[in-house]
Design a protein that fits this description.
Helix content is about 30%, strand content about 30%. It is built from six helices and seven strands, in the order αββαβββαββααα. The chain is elongated.
């Protein structure tokens, strides 16, 4: 699910963390980029603006040598409506939940031997773990990836929806059967005709 390229090539909100020294209870990392970084992030994701981005990511140990990232992500995104091209604003709130194991982990070798994700799947996670090259894991890049997945690729403003609804013909679009003859009325007429002939 996550894009390895962001962690390899670098993200505008990069935050490398040495996960080999994590305390037993884990560590919370606040990813809250400044205005310049948010501008670069907006360009990277092809949106008009990124405002107020904040992610509180808890980094904790998982299994023997794996790492789990979890926590809330909030941001305001400004995009152009795909219909009217007018700027529109949307507030995004999503949860980060990802598992990582070192690329030299024994769990990775067991997975390849026993079939896809035989040991690694966590019942509380939607995705199988990904690999990273220790000792550092780029927390900011992971936040970037989750944000990119949460953005609506085809945003439509309220005005666009109203314009589409306003273009409908109330008779032909909303009541397509209004001008069609009633089948029960036709049966009643046939029945009466038969009675009169008798």
């Amino acid at each position: 699910m996550l894009q390895e390229s962001l962690r390899l090539q670098g993200s505008p909100i990069s935050y490398p963390l040495n996960v080999s020294t994590l305390p037993t209870k884990g560590r919370t990392v606040i990813v809250q980029p400044d205005e310049a970084a948010c501008e670069k992030l907006a360009d990277e994701m092809d949106v008009l603006a990124v405002d107020g981005l904040r992610a509180a990511v808890t980094v904790s140990r998982w299994q023997r040598d794996g790492v789990r990232l979890s926590g809330p992500l909030k941001v305001i995104i400004r995009q152009a409506c795909v219909v009217t091209l007018e700027p529109m604003e949307s507030e995004i709130e999503t949860e980060i939940d990802a598992l990582f194991v070192p690329d030299n982990s024994k769990l990775t070798r067991k997975t390849s031997d026993q079939g896809a994700n035989a040991m690694l799947i966590d019942p509380e996670s939607d995705d199988a773990p990904e690999t990273f090259t220790p000792p550092e894991l780029d927390i900011g890049a992971v936040v970037h990836e989750f944000l990119a997945l949460a953005i609506d690729p085809y945003p439509r403003s309220v005005q666009a929806d109203e314009a589409v609804l306003g273009s409908k013909n109330p008779v032909t679009d909303d009541n397509p059967d209004e001008d069609k003859p009633n089948p029960f009325a036709i049966l009643a007429t046939l029945k009466n005709d038969g009675t009169n002939k008798g």
